[in-house]
Amino acid sequence: MKLTSPKALLVLSVLLWFFACKSESSSYSSNKNLSISPNNSFSFDSEENSNRVIQVNKSKDEILAGDVFEIEELIPLETRKASLLGKVNKIDFFENQIFVLDAKNAKKLAVFDMDGTHQRNFGSKGGGPGQYSDILDFTIDREKKMVFILTFELDLLIYDIEGKIIDKHILKVPMKNIESLGNSQLALYDNDPSRKMIAPGYRLKIYDYEKKEIVSKHMYLDEMLHKRIPRNTNTFSKTGNVINLYTNNSDSVYQIIEDKISLKYFLDFGRHQRPTDFFENLPLLPASFDVMMSSNYSSPPRNWQESTRHIFMNYSINKEIYHTLISKKTQEVIFSSPALVDDFYSGMVFNPFGVYSDYFVCLIEPEYTAMFRNYYEKEGVAVKEKYPQRFKDLLSGLKSGDNPVIALLKVKEDIQ
């Protein structure tokens, strides 16, 4: 797919990607897999496994977002003192409500309705019941209508869906991400070797919160790799009731259904595929990150998001981030390019935070919208006239300091 756009717009888009991805820039990995054999190598021998392989072919073509995606809806999150957000880390939807986590700046889990009106927050900063110092992650048990917050102290705070604290479990086991599996079980994943309390061992643990115990462990990482593999900011995403797991040392994507873990996809990067001993031969952290980034090998997938029809993910080669869209119907790459350009002129960061049915969930950051406006006004371009007609009033009124706008994007019907 060969698409073109103004060079100036591309420069601005690259700047936006830099700011959006800067805090996640150490999210890379290796060619080891969960299952199949003792050394975790992948086999193409069986027909079942070969059907799970996705051939990833990169290009340098500019991709205009408007040629691929259409904006189905924009949801401006209400801006007031109780709802103010800084950097959004995670978004989830449940019972016509939007759960938004800002773990770094506002340090809150805020809930909005589908019009963007603020409803409530879960817990608050402090040392009392239901309070926390920092949040690492959250998840929702949809069957039991309960919300779980993982704190920096590795405590598990349990709330009902309205935000009332129910219980607190003191876990103190290494983890960074959590996701509900249903049946009173949570998947816990440890992916951050920078935290001194985290040691070599099993990355994935299944926790039964009714029994208050770890019921199984998976994906062992020995000390040699533990000291070499850079961290991955997030490892879980969801497709309906299926949990997707993409790790910081694998080109495989796994699925977890209840407590069963299996291979879902394997990404074949062709001549950019890392050797199986790539990580074993890296220097120790933090030097390993620079060596890996400078290599001509692919990183493992990051930000793996699946809608009902498509997959969006990122990976890196030689310090460039490739934004990739894959058809689930054909398992073929639609595009894989370092230049995904916002020709909606909205300041949208095309790095989905999740999926909502058939939609990819992205953010429009008001300060980026202002950046676009200021740039083009200096160039004599009436950028407000370029906004999509349905959303012209909303985008024209955004100003720096407002809460972000949630964008629901759908891949156009004529793109398989």
Spatial gap, N to C terminus = 13 Å
Rg, Cα atoms, Å: 21 Å
The major sheet is characterized as: 5 strands, mixed
What overall geometry do the principal axes of the alpha carbons give?
Answer: globular
Q: State the helical fraction.
A: 10-25%
Look at the structure and give the mean pLDDT: 84
Beta-sheet strand percentage?
35-45%
Low-confidence stretches: 1-6, 14-47
Which class do the helix and strand fractions yield?
A: mainly beta
What is the number of helical segments per DSSP (H or I, 4+ residues)? 7
Strand order of the largest sheet: 1-21-20-19-18
Count of beta strands:
29
Notable characteristics:
416 residues, mainly beta, four-stranded antiparallel sheet, globular
Walkthrough of the structure:
Helices cover 13% and strands 40% of the residues. With 416 residues, the protein is mainly beta.
Compose a concise summary of this entry.
By secondary structure, the chain is mainly β. It is 13% helix and 40% strand. The chain is globular.
Fold topology:
Blueprint: H1 7-21, H2 47-50, E1 53-55, E2 62-64, H3 65-68, E3 69-76, E4 90-94, E5 97-102, E6 108-113, E7 118-122, E8 124-125, E9 131-132, E10 135-141, E11 146-151, E12 155-160, E13 165-170, E14 177-182, E15 185-189, E16 201-208, E17 213-221, H4 223-226, E18 236-239, E19 242-246, E20 252-257, E21 260-268, H5 287-294, E22 302-306, E23 310-317, E24 320-327, E25 333-337, E26 339-341, E27 348-356, E28 359-364, H6 366-378, H7 392-397, E29 405-411
Parallel strand pairs: 1-21, 2-26, 8-9
Antiparallel strand pairs: 3-29, 4-5, 5-6, 6-7, 10-11, 11-12, 12-13, 14-15, 15-16, 16-17, 18-19, 19-20, 20-21, 22-23, 23-24, 24-25, 27-28, 28-29
